[in-house]
Amino acid sequence: MSYYESDLDLLAEVRKYGKFDVTGCFNCGSCTLSCELANDQASFPRKSVRHVVMGLKGLLHESLEPWVCHDCGDCSVACPRQTKPQESMMTLRRYLASVYDWTGIASLINRSKGWHMATLSFAAAVVLLLILLYHLSVVKMTFSDLTSTSNGLKHMFPIMTYFTLAVILIPLFILVSNAFRMYGFTASGSQNGRTSASPNLSQVKTFLLHFFTYKKMAECPTGKSRWLEHLFIGIGCLIMLAVKVFGLSWFQTDQIHPLFHPQRWLGYLATALILYGTGSILLGRITKEKEVYKSSEFADWIFLALLFATALSGIILHTLRLLGFEVGTCYTYAIHVMIATPMLVIEMPFGKWTHMIYRPLAVSLRSLSLKERTLEQQWSPKEVPEHATT
Q: Model-level pTM?
């Protein structure tokens, strides 16, 4: 099939990943006109919808528009036919995330709630099995022996260090490799005048800016509160990932650090930020007062719930250790690991958490494309000044 040849099965394929209503759309453009982030080069959601309707799979795969969209819901409010283009863009993000993933797992969990729950449950079951095998086969201690150590955890920390690094770094490697695949799909495309370009310092700066600040979301008129919620979640997750990789000895220890120790304040700060951000969004999805939260898929709920439960179980575990409840500490630690591990190994490389890297990457690629087009418009081949070729 040639690059621009129509794939008649594309619409049916996309619909496997969620709602995608095109039967009511009469292409009026109200959705695009209502969006503060849309422009001549990124006329979403209308442009992305037309790609699917026309079966232009090649253009859809190199498209950045679904990621530049920050899901505010203004387009759904503006649509006179109630086709919910916001939902269509969410579906396209799930579809494209599955296209980038080389393992095929993202496709399974984004198309099926059953597969999503099965993978999470399998990861949790493996963790539980490892815990049981460790206690029964490796440690060979009685229950009283296990709980007689300081808070009952000291004996586990050496092996847990390697386990923690594995469940963070392996999924992170998969996510980064998928991001390179996204770059391969999008950076060399011909859509919107993009040409094959190597990453440059300006592009890296743009990526880092949007990765850490979620700046585009703040530009949405209805997205101010969402921006703060996502910013808090992002900062909290980055703090925890950083300390788990670079300061693991601070956290996996039976020693209770003094109140002024950085370990405690970093943990408290990250926990507070994550609990506030996830709790606020979950409450919004429950009340459905804002347009952005009126349509929620399983993936939207499960990631937030797992992240909230991870932070909550972590602070409960810490509290039990401070109070000296040794048996409760052991059980809570097992529950905490059984929640955090599926979130890391499934959600980070394959689920909703992938947006943390795909969105800023799309914005950086879009900014590079716009700069290239500006230069092309300023200097036609006949008008290039002498100093530009020297």
A: 0.85
Q: Give the 3-state secondary structure of residue 40.
A: coil
* Share above pLDDT 70 across residues of the chain, in percent, rounded to a whole number: 83
- In terms of residues, how long is the chain? 390
Contact 239, 269 (CB under 8 A): yes
User: And the tokens for 279?
Assistant: 């709790």
Statement: residue 204 has pLDDT above 60 = yes
Amino acid at site 256: I
Q: Specify whether the CB–CB gap between 181 and 360 falls below 8 A.
A: no
CA 39, CA 78: separation in Å to the nearest integer? 17
Q: Which CATH architecture has domain 10-100?
A: Orthogonal Bundle (1.10)
How distant is the alpha carbon of residue 29 from its chain centre? 29
Residue 309: its pLDDT value, please?
A: 97
Please identify which residue in the block is written with the tokens 């980055």.
238
Asked if 186 contacts 203 with a C-beta cutoff of 8 angstroms, the reply is: no
Classify residue 210 as left (phi > 0), alpha (psi -120 to 50) or beta: alpha
DSSP tally for the chain: helices H, then strands E: 20, 0
Question: Two tokens at 259?
Answer: 């109140």
pLDDT value, residue 373:
47
Helix axis angle, 224-246 relative to 201-213, nearest 10°?
Answer: 110
- Return d(Cα 309, Cα 268) in angstroms, integer: 15
Q: What is the CA radius of gyration of the chain?
A: 24
Using pLDDT thresholds of 50, 70 and 90, give the confidence band for residue 138. low
Residue 235 pLDDT: 95
pLDDT at 163 over 50: yes
290 in Cβ contact with 86 (< 8 Å)? no
d(CA 101, CA 117): 19
Three-state SS at 201: helix
Residue 153 confidence (pLDDT): 56
The domain segmentation of the chain, as residue ranges, is 10-100, 107-373
Return the closest-CA partner of residue 207 out of 229, 227, 185, 180: 180
CB 118, CB 83: distance < 8 Å: no
- CA–CA distance, 46 with 51 (Å, rounded to integer): 9
